[in-house]
Amino acid sequence: MNNVSVITMFFLSGFNETISHRFVLFFLSLLCYCIICLVNVSLIVIIILDSNLHESMYILLCVFCMNALYGTAGFFPRFLWDLLSDVHVISYYGCLIQNQVIYSFACGELSILALMAYDRYVAICQPLKYHSIMSKQRVIRFACFSWFTTFCIMTVNTFLTFRLKLCSPYISRLFCVNWSIVQLACFPAQTTINAIVANITIIIYLLHGVFIVWSYMYIIQTCVKSIENRAKFMQTCVPHLVSLFTFVVAILTDVINMRLGSKELPRTLQNFIAIEFLVIPPIMNPLIYGFKLTKIQKRIYSVVIFKRTNFCFIRSDNSFTHS
């Protein structure tokens, strides 16, 4: 037992199945990460620069995209490096930091979705009070508080993992997550407090889900009575529900596979299940909101038309000069 406290590196054995296709996977992963950065940064810039979009719904969407950039930055750069490396190792502290970033991203995503649900509830069910309840300053405070709370909760989980004595440096995944590290503990009795805090964390974020369901029960009840509210529901609530469904399915699939999954599943499938919540929602969410929300659509079209007009003007001016 003298060696249990000297682990300084972890070996990520999930990469063993990627060796024969690593260059193809690297190219696809790099392309995916570039698309994630492009669509999320574009939406953030559009919302920040257009004063007409400085409303609570768009501010929360901006925070949503920032959280996606934060979470994917904790995964993709390291993942791309490992795909090109012959030895897939990560330092002990690097592993804990990656765990902290990815978990706080995932839980922060659910917190922001809960805020979005509340915003839609107030907009549709209490429209006369909307601007007083969901002012810009209050929305920003709500968003900062929810993300800071999430970060602190995840820090507690990470600290409890940090205190464990570990007997193995092998993690059978593509990246570090809390449960995989806790399973390496030498003394199972030490992990009791980890399990208790983890279950409390799960309950907290399940309550976020209950709150979202409660909000939509009232929203749907209100929309049934009004054609105008039905149109508003289709315009602003459907993207939110699609984002929520995509994220929850991706997270639940990974959690179920991690806790209850069969060892007989092909490693390639296990790897895909593990990373889908870091790939699909960050790409889909900006596209869904960009195509569905009218104000953002108009802003994108105006930018595209402006660039096209400038390009045509430059070409015609060059033609005139040459002639």
What does this structure look like?
- The protein has 323 residues and is an all-alpha fold.
- Helices cover 75% and strands 3% of the residues.
- Strands 2-1-3 form a 3-stranded mixed β-sheet.
- The chain starts with 8 loop residues before the first strand and ends with a helix.
- 30% of the residues are buried.
Fraction of helical residues: over 70%
With strands numbered from the N-terminus, the spatial order across the biggest sheet is 2-1-3
Q: Name the shape in a single word.
A: globular
Structural class: mainly alpha
What's the overall average pLDDT, rounded?
82
Low-pLDDT sequence parts: none
Number of helices: 12
Q: Roughly how many Å apart are the termini?
A: 85 Å
Number of strands: 3
The percentage of residues in β strands lies in: under 5%
Radius of gyration equals 23 Å
Can you lay out the helices and strands and say which pair or pack?
Elements: E1 9-12, H1 22-49, H2 56-73, H3 76-84, E2 89-91, H4 92-125, H5 130-133, H6 136-162, E3 170-171, H7 178-182, H8 192-223, H9 227-260, H10 267-275, H11 280-292, H12 294-322
Parallel strand pairs: 1-3
Antiparallel strand pairs: 1-2
